[in-house]
Each structure stands twice: as C-alpha cells, then as structure tokens.
Amino acid sequence: xxxxxxxxxxxxxxxxxxxxxxxxxxxxxxxxxxxxxxxxxxxxxxxxxxxxxxxxxxxxxxxxxxxxxxxxxxxxxxxxxxxxxxxxxxxxxxxxxxxxxxxxxxxxxxxxxxxxxxxxxxxxxxxxxxxxxxxxxxxxxxxxxxxxxxxxxxxxxxxxxxxxxxxxxxxxxxxxxxxxxxxxxxxxxxxxxxxxxxxxxxxxxxxxxxxxxxxxxxxxxxxxxxxxxxxxxxxxxxxxxxxxxxxxxxxxxxxxxxxxxxxxxxxxxxxxxxx
Length: 275
Known about the structure:
This protein has helices at 2-16, 32-38, 75-87, 99-114, 119-131, 136-148, 182-188, 193-206; strands at residues 51-57, 68-74, 154-156, 171-173, 211-216, 221-226, 234-237, 240-245, 268-271. By secondary structure, the chain is of the alpha+beta class.
C-alpha cells in the first residue's frame, strides 16, 4: 500500500513537471574558423560525402510568421563552386571603362555554373510556400527575409580585412572578385551585398521570377531588383519595373533604398532577368 502511494505521487509529479524537451538549435552561426574550413581556406580535410547543415529561423517581412527550417549542402558542391570562381571565371574586359560588362561576366559565369545547385534548400523553400499557399509577393518576402537574416560578413579579394572588420561584421579574405557563389553563402550562412543578391537572383530565377542585380560603382553596393507588384523606387528594364530590394539588413521592404544610396542614376543592371 505504501509503495502504491509513493508510485502515485511519482506519477502526479512527473505529469505536472515533465522533463524539459530538447529543442533543435535553429540559430546556426559558424565561427570564422568554420567558415574558412567550409570554403577551403584552411588545412581542414573534408570527405567528399560530408554535408554542411544550416538550421535557421527568421521573421518573414510583412508577416508574423517565424518559420524554422533545416537544409544541407554537400561539401563537394561548395568546393566545386569555389574552384570555378577561383580558376574559371575570366572576364575578358578589365578596367573602369568596361566595369559594367566586367561585373556582368563575373555574375553570369558564377550563376550559370551554380544554377542547378542548392536543391535541398530550393525544395525546402518551395514546400513551405505550398503548405502555406503563398502568393508570388508573399513568397518573395519569405525568401528575401531569409537572406536578410544572415549575418553580414565582408568578403574580400585581397588581404585588407584589417581596414573593414568590426566585432559585429567579421571579414574573410582571399576570395576572387570579393564574392561568394550561391552555394557558398547558403552553406556558410554569411555574406556581403553581392553574395546575397546573387544567391537571391539564383533562387528567384529558379522559381520563374523576373529578377535583376543592380550595382553602383559610386556606392560600392549591390541590390536586388524584382518585378513584382510594389511601391517605392525602381528602374525600368525593357519597359518592366524592377523594384530595388536591400538584402544586407532586416526589415527592408521592396522599393526601399537606404538614404545614402538613393541617387538612381548611380545604379545600373549588372545581371538582367533574361541573362
């Protein structure tokens, strides 16, 4: 009888105070060492079958939704894109007079070589849109806010990080053209302006949006341009309105431009929607 009473007390205590659940950590934030390992900038040796996994939660623009997701990218895919950028991207024109064409060639070569990658990430984004019945604008907000949530890191070609790095904005160097391919930024979860815009350009092209990459030499900045119903600042391309979209910080909506970057004549299309 006494044993039964103690057992009953145990059951009541267990159900009133259940064991804490082990929740997944949805804030994957890699250190500089790990990022450099993923991007082959260290002596770390990977196996060809190794996967890099990102676990993420982020707040969607114009929504109260905070989706969480996991996706993986094969290290072989990341290293394949790294090798292509470092050794195979060769713009034929160099110098200030040809700067627009120069960046067009760089972006287009990286995009073309990477456009069939990141399949698990693409499937994850698509499945969320299907389950939640997102329209084209809501899906755009979902994808852009996913990238806006990534920490900003400087990606440099030369060894000049000391002039840029801050505690809040780390810097990594030794990357040709100062840019990461879409697979590289998706795997590491960090990047600068044109790494982000090229990632989003690749995703939006995959989902059949009309999208461009805007670049300003004066502002040393890159922004996304998207042909969707919107208000705010835009440039016309072939009669279509492509609204500016800032990707380097949270909560920027389509058509919004940072005040210090708002002279539209300083911007040009570096990669078009039909490239």
